[in-house]
Amino acid sequence: MNKGMKRIIVIGISLLNACMLSGQSPDQVYLKGMAALQQDHPEEAVQVLTDAIERNNADERYYLARADAFYKLGKFELAGRDYDEANSIYPECGDLGLARVFAATGEDDKAIDYLKRHLQSEYRLAESVITKDPAFDKIQQKDEWYNLWQQEWYSDIEKAEAEVGYYLKKKDPEQALEYLNDKLASFQREPRYYALRAKVYALKENHAAAVADYSMALSLDKTDPEFYFGRGIAFLRSAKYRNAADDFTKGLRADPARFDFYLERAKANAGLEDFNAAVSDVELYLQYFSDDRQATSLCGEMHFLNGDYINALKYFNKNLKADPDNPEYYKARGKTYLKTKTYTYAINDLSMALDLKPDDGEAWLYLGLAKYETGEKEEACSDLEKAQRYGNNLAVKFSIEYCGK
Description:
This protein is mainly α.
């Protein structure tokens, strides 16, 4: 996927999220269509979203998503119809999409008009997002484009968000925080201010401060799912797993197509040792993103922690089939074989992991434990010693117990 296409996907999804005001719960067909769109499969997205619309033709999100898919396919007339239909349900939410359609078909005056409508609406995206949208590349040299940006479209908080974005792009969170603290008096009742400062605190790994600011944002506005997602991550990083899981649930209830947060909720549930719930979340994610190896590994790990080694092996085997040169996948399967007492298989996998990554202290630990179970005490103790050498502190306990040192 080229960079321009990635930008189109991000812009489309950002606009879709901005328009999620109806509160209707999308069905699984809609989620499948959104997943196809996010994975840059527009033809599949059109097909699936058409089915979703036949089930529910009163949700603007369905039309916006299918319009984005039509746009990616170059079917601009059909995209325009869907953006219009979304507007008929929620006025103005499809205006940016229509501006992009008219820009693509050479109707520059209409493109500018719809951009103005978008910039006057509550759905407006940041100037930096719009000006970087490749859909408008051809009209950026026109006087009308220049004149458009001479007008003042953005509120003070939106300007603050742009300023903070600039500092963060420069990797200067300290300057961003100083700027925001100076602005506190102007934004004491503005929830987006606290969410913005929370984001900076999170980047500085001050998770307690991030939680406090997200909580302040939510006390002022309980409808924005981004506040729940942000606070959920801060709770997760603070090992407050129940709070994190609750926030992810609230965020997903409002915005169920934020697939990445099913994985975050799985981690929170794992922290609560509710591995069944964790597995359910990862498996739901994998229904839509079946080739995601990181999620596949996470699912295997959740099954492993739940004591379901057969299913853990299924997911680790899947990853090894896709990438047979990854030492982490051999280690994961090896430690699972160790739990099932199939020690020869465990030794083979862990040895392969160490051939690929010789300094993995954890793999040396598991290999030592597997060899000890097969009666190879001398080799096991040697492996446990190597595990300690490569920084695995748990190996000390087993060395004392099994090797007397």
